[in-house]
Amino acid sequence: MKQLSLQHLLLSSFMILFLIVSLNHKTIAQSPTPTTVPLPPYQTIQINMYRLDGNNSAGLVPIPCVKDDESYGCTAIPNKPKFAYPFGDENPVTTLKLESDIRDGKQQGYIHNVTAKELGPHIGSQGNKLFSSVQAQAIAVRTYAYQRYANQHPVDQGGYGPINNSSQFQVYLPYFYNEVLITNEQQNRIDDAVRPVIYMTEQGKQHAIEALFGTDNCKDTSEGSAPYLQLVNDPISIYAASLGTQPCKNSDRGTGSGGMSSNGASRWGFG
């Protein structure tokens, strides 16, 4: 297991996808990690599974997935019985493995599928993203999941409660890794990126930092409440937005005031 200190992060990876405020992820005040929480790595995560709309939102009144549900969100491939909700009567899913989780020959692991969905290696770039960008996304996904795992105590106690599969947290879609990625090379790149169990911590600590990221941005980052959330220049994404070919839309921004993003990591990877 490897941990990246803040200093290592600042020196070695300008592509890590961290934000201060995310329009793709609900903004929640950071709660301190309880000292009674076991230290990472964590093996499983509890997740509420909901039907999602085209923006990967569960809506104001979420509809839970049920056995054999073919709705989008319950599966990445809707309206096909072969790819119906794979967890039977279980919801919330309390046994989902963070790392590899093979069920009926399909990779349903949380980090595999979230990394694939959030970065979208099948979109653009001739169907591929550079490995450095994919690994940066995987590190962000694992760090985010670890920090939420450690703070799953109830909301009225200052925690997050259980996470769900929508863009309120990280978008998790069963079958995405196996059925949406269009080449073996894309799957292999995800495998290689998630294999090292790397997450980020503050210097001298072991619990994961608060990690937020979004889809895109058109500004530099802004400073946050935690000392490791500092202003970072993102001139490549700003330039891309100025061309008009990749305009910043409110629905796509990583943050309301700018921030590194999944698309930004892809641009930095290509330089």
What are the secondary-structure elements, in order, as H or E? Answer: EHEEEEHHEHHEHH
What's the β-strand tally?
7
Note poorly predicted spans: 2-32
General form: globular
Helix count, DSSP H or I runs of 4 or more residues: 7
C-alpha Rg (nearest Å): 18 Å
Characterization of the model:
The structure is a single chain. This protein has 271 residues and is of the alpha/beta class. Helices cover 25% and strands 8% of the residues. It contains 7 helices and 7 strands; from the N terminus they run βαββββααβααβαα. It has helices at residues 6-12, 110-119, 131-150, 176-179, 184-194, 235-242, 262-270, and strands at residues 2-4, 44-48, 93-97, 102-103, 106-107, 163-164, 198-200. It has a 3-stranded mixed β-sheet. Strand 4 (102-103) and strand 5 form a beta hairpin.
What is the gist of this entry?
The chain is of the alpha/beta class and 271 residues long. 25% of the residues lie in helices and 8% in strands. The strands form three sheets. Strands 3-2-6 form a three-stranded mixed β-sheet. It has a two-stranded parallel ribbon with strand order 1-7. A two-stranded antiparallel sheet has the order 4-5.
Produce the secondary structure layout.
Blueprint: E1 2-4, H1 6-12, E2 44-48, E3 93-97, E4 102-103, E5 106-107, H2 110-119, H3 131-150, E6 163-164, H4 176-179, H5 184-194, E7 198-200, H6 235-242, H7 262-270
Parallel strand pairs: 1-7, 2-6
Antiparallel strand pairs: 2-3, 4-5
